[in-house]
From TrEMBL:
This is Helix-turn-helix type 11 domain-containing protein. Keywords: Coiled coil. It comes from the Archaea. Residues 68-102 form a coiled coil. It comes from Sulfolobus acidocaldarius Ron12/I. It holds the Pfam family HTH_24.
Length: 107
């Protein structure tokens, strides 16, 4: 998954600061509210890029081959699901065309 430019900036800041930065310090550096910084931290946490400690420090996770493998499996699963859904949509378009008695249906 490609990160937004702002999330990429935060990862760069974390790397510059040795892998850890406090949310309030990040907010000051980016000139945003602490609430907004927390939102970015939650997103990076959800995506598996950081951990949070009890003092609201964002800690950059090191690349873990297991996480990459799990991520690849997830992407493959979702890709297969998307392809199956595309086929189902095409089938439904054909069925709708037959039902309406027309050759093509634009959806």
């Amino acid at each position: 998954m490609e990160l937004t430019p702002r999330l990429q900036d935060i990862i760069s800041i974390l790397k510059e600061k040795g892998g850890s930065v406090n949310i309030r310090d990040l907010a000051l550096q980016l000139k945003i509210s602490p609430k907004t910084a927390k939102g970015y931290a939650r997103e990076l946490y959800r995506l598996g890029y950081i951990e949070m400690d009890e003092n609201e420090n964002m800690i950059l996770k090191r690349e873990n081959p297991e996480n990459i493998t799990d991520l690849k499996k997830t992407v493959e699963t979702h890709t297969a699901e998307i392809e199956a859904l595309k086929k189902e949509v095409e089938f439904l378009k054909e069925e709708l065309s037959r039902f309406r008695g027309t050759k093509k249906v634009k959806v």
